[in-house]
From TrEMBL:
Main location: membrane
PANTHER family to which the protein is assigned, alphabetical: ABC-TRANSPORTER METAL-BINDING PROTEIN (PTHR30477), HIGH-AFFINITY ZINC UPTAKE SYSTEM MEMBRANE PROTEIN ZNUB (PTHR30477:SF23)
Entry-linked NCBIfam families: PRK09543.1
Record keywords, A-Z: Cell membrane, Ion transport, Membrane, Transmembrane, Transmembrane helix, Transport, Zinc, Zinc transport
SUPFAM superfamilies: ABC transporter involved in vitamin B12 uptake, BtuC
Membrane topology label: Multi-pass membrane protein
Protein's name according to its UniProt entry: High-affinity zinc uptake system membrane protein ZnuB
Transmembrane segment boundaries: 6-28, 40-73, 85-104, 127-148, 168-201, 213-233, 239-257
InterPro entries attached to this UniProt entry: ABC_BtuC-like, ABC_TroCD
Highest taxon listed in the record's lineage: Bacteria
Length: 262
């Protein structure tokens, strides 16, 4: 197997593994729009990284984390509804990133790679970021699984039981921000949340417990990455969109399979 294809496979499988349980929380808490806002802000992080001569990956990670904190703060203090606020910030940050990039005439970048991913161009340094970031998120999810689940099921009851609800909500948003930052290379700014949501939504239909859904989402994500990469390799299609199409196909197959009755 060529080195670039091996890097792509490892990166995609690693992200799919952590996107399963994290995407389950995104589905349960209906945070898809929040993920979209962070993913759109990733392009602004790229632009600022290039402007300040910083590593784009590091700049995107820092930018997503900062925006997650800003969003949490604004949601608590501003009078607008959360979906309205996210609807303002998502296109604004994406457009601002494109405007900043347009001013840098001496910098040449492949904008399509940032928008739709360039999985087959994952370098060893990119792979280190993806594996390291995904490993940290997965470890944090394992440690916070029960408290996060309790807060997701019933926030008021979790607060009565003494759980730090606000801190756990912020922790979940920061974990989403990290995954979005490391996933940009794989499926791009415009398709990141699909890798979080589609496998989790497909697994939800047939899962009987939260753990089954998280595990099923990871398995479906792994299958989508493998099928998408195979399609890209043999049919010369773009890798990121091919993975999303494979995930959507698995979702449709899941809808066709009758749900088990307990």
């Amino acid at each position: 197997m060529p080195d670039f294809l091996l890097n792509a496979l490892i990166a995609g499988l690693t992200l799919a593994l952590v996107a399963g349980p994290l995407g389950s929380f995104v589905v349960w808490r209906r945070m898809a729009y929040f993920g979209d806002t962070l993913s759109h802000a990733a392009l602004l992080g790229v632009a600022l990284g290039l402007l300040l001569n910083l590593s784009p990956t590091l700049a995107v990670t820092a930018g997503c984390l900062l925006l997650a904190i800003v969003l949490v703060t604004l949601q608590q203090r501003q009078p607008l509804a959360s979906d309205t606020l996210l609807g303002i910030l998502a296109p604004t940050t994406l457009s601002l990133g494109l405007v900043v990039l347009s001013f840098m005439k001496d910098v040449r970048i492949d904008l399509m790679a940032y928008l739709f991913g360039d999985l087959l161009a994952v370098s060893n340094s990119d792979l280190a970021w993806i594996v390291g970031g995904s490993a940290l998120v997965l470890l944090a999810l394992v440690g916070l699984w029960r408290p996060l689940l309790a807060v997701t099921v019933h926030e008021e009851l979790a607060k009565v039981e003494g759980l730090p609800v606000a801190g756990l909500r912020l922790a979940l948003m920061l974990l989403i921000a990290v995954v979005i930052a490391v996933a940009m290379k794989i499926v791009g700014v415009l398709l990141i949340t699909s890798l979080l949501i589609i496998p989790a939504a497909a697994a939800q239909r047939h899962a009987r417990t939260p753990e089954q859904m998280a595990l099923g989402a990871s398995v479906l994500g792994l299958l989508a990455v493998g099928a998408g990469l195979a399609l890209s390799w043999f049919q010369d299609t773009p890798a990121g969109p091919s993975i999303v199409v494979a995930a959507a196909t698995l979702f449709l197959f899941g809808l066709a399979i009758p749900r088990r009755v307990a």
